[in-house]
Write a structure and sequence with these properties.
- The structure is a single chain.
- About 40% of the residues lie in helices and about 20% in strands.
- It is α/β, with parallel strands linked by helices.
Length: about 350
């Protein structure tokens, strides 16, 4: 007679322990062949992107601040969706098409882009900045980079309000889209690609000098976007790359905006990060991170490093181990982007 048990958590943990993603990188495989196959599978799992439409971008206002000019920009990413953004232009930056830009993605916070762009309208915005060193788009603008910070779908200005049943709206949107074969992660990656399209139209920006960064869910977006968007020349993933079996299956520490059906059958997060190679990648890891545990982040880094070594690009993978919690370290990112953009 089988040993009986009734726990779904024990069931999922056992299934995850028995599963090795079919395209998880192995040193015995040829890197170029693996990358081609893994990227093809990731794009297959994501499903089709929306049809491209004219951006029809508008600069709705410009405000001068101490170190930069702040603009509110809105553009269309598909027929039924528009993207509101904050753009920060460092003072003294010339509109000569030679300057670097960084696409900054926010994390899983209801305020979306605003605190990341240093726009503080409530005490809660400032609390997020203080807790996570969260205004990295503003910090990068002060360091001389033009930054673009959009709202992800379901956050900030794109949030429809709280779910009446108290559910995570990311999960509700995942279920709504799932029955139509549309996934929030794919749609957000598409919006990030459109953000790159927009940056390429900016008179200040060199299209060959565009980077991306983000914390937590912003790290998810940075990893997935940079994996499939070669115009991202350097990426800073802050507190995300760690095994699905740990943060996802065992702890359930993710949402419907950060997954694709069947993804873990094929790839782990380190494989997604490895698809960025040979382009430069910075992985930030907080020793006191209670959202993504450091031992898991370190495992994700080690597995990503194996891929970068196979790609002959180990010198382009930068670790930033810092003593803080789930936050932007603010240590190596500045020199990283100054070197590679």
């Amino acid at each position: 007679m089988s040993r009986r048990q009734f726990s779904m958590q024990a069931y999922w943990d056992r299934k995850a322990a028995q599963l090795r993603p079919r395209l998880h990188f192995d040193e015995d495989v040829d890197y170029a062949a693996w990358r081609q196959q893994a990227l093809q599978k990731l794009l297959e799992l994501m499903g089709p992107f929306p049809e491209k439409v004219p951006l029809a971008a508008e600069i709705e206002y410009t405000v001068e601040e101490e170190h930069f000019f702040r603009q509110r920009v809105v553009f269309d990413s598909e027929e039924d969706m528009s993207v509101p953004c904050q753009v920060l232009i460092p003072k003294g930056m010339r509109a000569d098409g030679t300057n670097p830009a960084i696409l900054c993605s926010h994390g899983h916070g209801r305020f979306g882009k605003d605190p990341v762009a240093g726009l503080v309208s409530t005490p809660e915005h400032q609390a997020d900045i203080d807790l996570m060193n969260y205004d990295y788009a503003a910090q990068m603008a002060r360091a001389g980079f033009l930054t673009l910070t959009p709202d992800l779908r379901g956050f900030g200005e794109r949030r429809d309000g709280d779910d009446p049943l108290g559910r995570d709206t990311c999960n509700v949107n995942f279920l709504k889209g799932g029955i139509m074969g549309l996934y929030p992660l794919t749609l957000n990656v598409w919006d990030m690609k459109c953000c790159v399209d927009y940056l390429c139209t900016r008179p200040e920006v060199d299209p060959e000098r565009i980077g991306m960064m983000g914390l937590s869910q912003g790290g998810t977006m940075t990893a997935f976007t940079a994996a499939v968007e070669p115009r991202i020349k350097a990426a800073d993933v802050i507190g995300y790359v760690n095994p699905f079996a740990s943060f996802g299956v065992h702890r359930g520490n993710f949402c419907g905006s950060q997954i694709l059906p069947g993804l873990y059958q094929w790839l782990d997060t380190s494989d997604i990060a490895g698809l960025i190679a040979p382009r430069p990648l910075l992985l930030e890891m907080g020793v006191a991170d209670s959202c993504f545990y450091f031992q898991d982040l370190w495992q994700g880094y080690r597995e990503t490093r194996r891929i970068y070594e196979a790609a002959g690009a180990e010198d382009r993978l930068w670790p930033d181990v810092h003593p803080g919690a789930h936050a932007f370290a603010g240590h190596r990112a500045f020199s990283f982007f100054k070197q590679y953009l």
